Amino acid sequence: MTDTILETRGMTKEFLGFVAVGDVSLQIRRGSIHGLIGPNGAGKTTCFNLLTKFLPPTRGEIRFDGRDITRMKPAEVARLGLVRSFQISAVFPHLTVLENVRVALQRARGGSFDFWRSDRLLRQYDQRARELLDDVGLASYAGLTAGQLPYGRKRALEIATTLALDPVMMLLDEPTAGMTAEDVDRIVALVRRVAQGRTVLMVEHNLKVVEGLCDTITVLTRGRVLAEGDYATVSRNPEVVAAYLGT
Ligand code: ADP
């Protein structure tokens, strides 16, 4: 097992000749929390789409856990354990919090939606769903519908439905966006907890969160890697200050 779990070489995405992501080579260390930051339009979302195969790269190579995933489909990379949270994890507002996690578990195991016909299977999913809700601090919300959850708690539910896929590596897309300070603290603690035994790559605008959570940070501007390193290193880089932190 190598130290690098996700690696890109020369990853490039052009839209009609416009370079959204240009020649990005990333190395994400197994077990680390890696931050991807940069001003709006820097190419962060496009990177996530490339890594999770929602977009094919124009050029370059992407390797995950020793495999070339450059030409794989999103479902295939998810099965390998590279899973994106938030934007794709479906939360059904009319189902209860518990049912949402149960459905995610059931889908992760590839069955159909009529699983409740089997009592034994239902009890297994139920038990595992309750464990996951406990892990993300939502045990007492199990019976509410997802639509009734406060915003910050919805994000925790999305993490629980992502954990149902048993990811090796999680991609978190702005986990604290739009949250109150109290919610931010809770999500930071949660990310730290779910990162144990996994790798996390996160796009995050809140630099306090990045500083507190990320071991390594890649700064993108205009589709290119501007700087990389720990928070102290990148935040002192004059180019980063000019391009991002100073704005
Ligand atoms: P970020 O997430 O860092 O804000 P994006 O990855 O969303 O940046 O966008 C990077 C650049 O690529 C932006 O200039 C954006 O307008 C452009 N872009 C993103 N997706 C498309 C697309 N489907 N077609 C054309 N241009 C795109």
TrEMBL record:
Keywords: ATP-binding, Nucleotide-binding, Transport. InterPro entries: AAA+_ATPase, ABC_AA/LPS_Transport, ABC_transporter-like_ATP-bd, BCA_ABC_TP_C, P-loop_NTPase. It comes from the Bacteria. Gene3D superfamilies: P-loop containing nucleotide triphosphate hydrolases (3.40.50.300). It holds the Pfam family BCA_ABC_TP_C. SMART domains: AAA. Residues 6-247 form the ABC transporter domain. One of its GO terms (molecular function) is ATP binding. One of its GO terms (cellular component) is plasma membrane. The keyword Phosphoprotein does not apply. This is ABC transporter ATP-binding protein. The lineage of its organism: Bacteria, Pseudomonadati, Pseudomonadota, Alphaproteobacteria, Acetobacterales.
